[in-house]
Amino acid sequence: MAETIPNGRPDSATIDGPTNPMVTPILTDLYQFTMAYAYWKAGKQNERAVFDLYFRRNPFGGEYTIFAGLEECIRFIANFKFTEDEIAFIKLSLPQSCEDGFYEYLRALDCSDIEIYSVSEGSVVFPKVPLMRIEGPIAVVQLLETPFVNLINYASLVTTNAARHRFVAGRSKILLEFGLRRAQGPDGGISASKYCYMGGFDATSNVAAGKLFGIPLRGTHSHAFVSSFLSPDEIIDKSLQHHDGSSVYEDFVSLVQTWLNKLKWSHLLGGIFSETNQSELAAFASYALAFPGSFLALVDTYDVMRSGLPNFCAVALALNDLGYKAVGIRLDSGDLAYQSCEARKFFCAIEKEFGLPGFGKTNITASNDLNEETLDALNKQGHEVDAFGIGTHLVTCYAQAALGVVFKLVEINNQPRIKLSEDVSKVSIPCKKRCYRLYGKEGYPLVDIMTGENEPQPKVGERILCRHPFNESKRAYVVPQRVEELLKCFWPGNSDKTREDLPPLKEIRERCIEQLDQMRPDHMRRLNPTPYKVSVSAKLYDFIHFLWLNEAPVGELQ
After folding, report:
1. Which of 127, 146, 465, 523 would be a feasible disulfide site paired with 28, CB 3.0-4.6 Å?
2. Which residues contact 162 (CB under 8 A, 6 or more apart)?
3. What phi and psi values does residue 548 have, to the nearest 5 degrees?
4. Model pTM?
5. Which reaction equation describes what this protein catalyses (predicted)?
6. pLDDT in tens, 253-284
7. Residue 533 pLDDT > 90, yes or no?
8. Nearest CA among 425, 427, 451, 426 for reference residue 437
9. C-alpha Rg value of the chain to the nearest Å
10. Three-state secondary structure call for residue 194
């Protein structure tokens, strides 16, 4: 939904500042200020410029990326203003020869004359297609480059990483982000939690992220909690109120011991274990007394099959007697496929022997340095895991350190500009563009196409020639069944355009899931995915190559 801003001015008073208070106008590279001064000194600071923000390659060896970080960019420009302390520091950092008038210019700067057109956050995106188009006075837009690239780069990378993990795990599994302790600092941890949720994870262990973004929280206890107990004698208050509040059972621990003996001599479970670790049993009983309605135990501190699993079941069955339902177990080491299958058999045997409907479906969570490859291997081996807790490889984007977002000038004072390179992948696509996604008969996206700003929009049912930007032999006609314009106005500046609302995180997450569902399966697969086609119109293709020849110097042979 878009909203009209009176007089075309963005109402920055209604938009909070960036989540991280360190995101200020001086969170940038020094050369942005040296260029801003040089623009100002030359009288060019107000020349109207257009920049594209995009990336050149999909990450993780895949063929798609999820766009994230837009909201933080809008929060940043809505509150863009230099403080006196910041101006004083900039003055110290630049040569003394810089004139005082430049600092007066900085004092007056804001982003009221900036226009931002962007793909919606949570969208599936592809290389070369602008994620954002930023228009405005060149000196101001240049000052936005580094923070924008910073805010988009990691956000899009980790959201994509989360979406890839979700794709491998499957829709039915619960995915938990457990990466805070291994993330690159506090901001890395907070950002990871937000964007992993956006990319399809269900919950996080990060309490601060839960408070900031409303992400569901999950977590139980560690091995330290289990090993901190020595025996059941340590438990002082052993009483537990029945779930319906009707009565209090005075010695819950003895009820647990009774169930443990029943399991030990069970016809179906006989021989699986003999004596379990009593300190572990004490820890489980104590935790259940604290959280009878949400009991989930880490069962691999000593031995999963001979101790952890039977101890958990004894506590779970005791809770069941008092009207509570245990949540499940967590496996954090060893052969997760084998252990999960054995645990499921154990639960099913208890359900059968003791007539407890549903006990066989007790939740099994697995963690232990999981990544895409281990999830894929577990699927191939066969497992009974219901939920995965994933940390290090997810939040650090261990498989690829950066997305490689770039910010390139494509037009100044209505004059298209191009950046050339011997590496064709680094040649920019000039001029202010409109971008469309064309859909085929089956509902899948077929191709993204860029056109010049004033070209007519592709129409449903009308054949259009789509050309590779740089390879003249790659071209195809497309008859779209649906046309979606990708760039929408999220900051209108002084124009009379309407501004798109910034949706809540949950809606962006839903958009991400919906977008991924629309993609053709061969674009999504882990192994040898089919590249998605990105094209330009015939007219834009001709213009790119005209400008290329015009700007490239002609060599001379001697």
Report:
1. 146
2. 175, 177, 195, 196, 197, 198, 199, 200, 201, 394
3. -55, -50
4. 0.95
5. 5-phospho-alpha-D-ribose 1-diphosphate + nicotinate + ATP + H2O = nicotinate beta-D-ribonucleotide + ADP + phosphate + diphosphate
6. 999 999 999 998 887 776 777 889 999 999 99
7. yes
8. 451
9. 29
10. helix
